[in-house]
Design brief:
3 helices; alpha+beta; 27% strand; two-stranded parallel sheet
């Protein structure tokens, strides 16, 4: 698959994920094409519950109001996939923001 040029749409994909609403995390599929018409922040990280990944997640959470103001949801994409423990872990980490 070719890399899109700057300003060109990214290829569509669907990934299993978690959504956070009112500090509650729930499993859901995320499909990029359903987000057309506004920016989406794709934050790639190598592993869950590691110091670097937790710091990255917290940095996005700290700026979430700015990103929301731009209409840009943040998708954290990791190599670990989504496990059942992720729902409680992510909700607990983000509950402090």
């Amino acid at each position: 698959m070719a890399t899109p040029a700057v300003g060109q749409p990214a290829p569509d994909f669907t990934l299993p994920g978690l959504t956070l609403a009112d500090r509650t995390a729930a499993r859901s599929d995320l499909t990029l094409s359903q987000e057309r018409g506004h920016p989406v922040v794709l934050a790639f990280h190598p592993g869950d519950n590691t110091p670097a990944c937790t710091k990255q997640l917290c940095s996005h959470a700290a700026g979430i109001e700015v990103l929301r103001g731009l209409g840009a949801p943040v998708w954290g994409i990791g190599i670990n996939g989504v496990t059942y423990s992720d729902v409680d872990t992510i909700a607990a980490q983000l509950a402090t923001f």
